[in-house]
Amino acid sequence: MEESNRTINKKPPERLYHYTSIDGLKGILDSHCLWASQIHFLNDTQEFNYSFDILRKLISEFNANLQRKRAIPIPPFRPEEWLGLFYDMIKKIYFDIDLFTKTPVCVFSFSPYGDLLSQWRGYCPLNGGYSVGFRSELLIPWLKTKKLLAEPCIYDRTEQEAIIREEIIRKGKDLMKKLTDGPNNAEEILRDVMIDFFMEFSQIASKLKHPAFYEECE
Predict the structure, then answer these.
(1) Which of 125, 139, 156, 204 is the most buried if burial means most Cβ atoms within 10 Å?
(2) What was the pLDDT predicted at 45?
(3) Boundaries of every domain in the chain
(4) SS3 letters for 75-143?
(5) What backbone torsions phi and psi does residue 27 show, to the nearest 5 degrees?
(6) 33-91 per-position pLDDT tens digit
(7) Other CB atoms within 10 Å distance of the CB of residue 39
């Protein structure tokens, strides 16, 4: 996952652990590589859909609020119409065209705990596995050289909704600012802002997990 302007708010632990099978460990040692998995093909096929459920709920709320505002007299520029188009494009891309399922978003899981039962159960076969420790001070700078993002997963529903809501508002304000700054191609501006939102939300979606999995602490 390419790194955005978002910063890591929590200081990483001294070591991060990756749980894997014997074959997985052999693959790491033989190739000298860490292989990320495409998020659409994880063991829990609904995992990446979880963020979409939140997005769908929030976009419905934003649209409902916008409909109420449309009853108020507005200037010739009609900013609410452009915001409405922005929300409609989000719905079209994510829920009609389902573009996200056609976009390769890859993740690699770490845990701050080297001996965690939920991780053994989730990522190691019954015949045994390994918890491979990486020093954060070496791992994270190396990931940055590859333009990869390392962030802790978020399991709290309230915090998850706040993050997505903030991103929708931020991009909406960005759209309105660019439209009012001067004579520009409004459709082109809307397209560019939508692309930015798509990239940002793809990163957000990769780190939001259902509260039921909080014990994994990834």
Answers:
(1) 204
(2) 52
(3) 15-39+46-216
(4) CCCCHHHHHHHHHHHHHHHHHHCCHHHHCCCEECCCECCCCCHHHHHHHCCCCCCEEEEEEHHHHHHHH
(5) -65, -40
(6) 888 877 766 655 566 678 888 998 999 898 888 776 554 444 445 666 788 888 888 88
(7) 19
